[in-house]
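Journal club prep, notes for RB
We'll compare a predicted complex against what the paper describes. Inputs for the zinc ion case:
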Amino acid sequence: MLTIVRIIFDIFLYLFLCLLLILFFVIKVDCQENLSNFNKPKPLVQYPVTGKTPFPMMTQSELNKVNEALTLAKELTKECSCDKALQDYGIESLSILLQSEANVSIFDGRRSTLGLPWINGNGERETVSSYFTKNQDWLWAGVIQTPFTGRGNILFLNNYFFSPNKAVTSALQQRAIILIHESVHQHANKDDKYFGGSQRLTMLITDACLPSLKMR
Ligand SMILES: [Zn+2]
């Protein structure tokens, strides 16, 4: 009788130990999963951050200014010396880079609520508009890359493009040079640094395309 009781006791002890073992593994796996969740990067911001008017259309005189400048830029790059201005930098033709159209891939940056990938000094997301306003003295236009627009590399124009305060009589020519300059960023994916800075890129284009024009 005592033996039977002992056997039953042993079986229960065995089952209890098994249960403990199972619980140990379950808790361990659970902890590991929690730990791996903890190590995962926090959810990233989903771009584009559009706001109300990410791609403000241009109308009337502003649209005319862009279209006239595009026409002149295309005329200028028909000349071989202008077209090949950046040949030494691996860009065989500037004319084929002039693919953008107003209100399709060129917009008014002064009113754009498109979010840029950083937070400004006020703890708010920088937008094209806020950044352009702050930097309008030197920032005439800018290309925002596809990951932040969701619709390809987009050219945004700043105040100087529409109202150049330097050498107003050559406004149209300056706009054409700005569009050629920006087309290099937009469609050849080369930044200013690649050419030794923004002013140098402008100079390379101006010297070949409109040597009489004085840009900054
Ligand atoms: Zn540039």
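Talking point for the session: Residues 1-40 form one domain.
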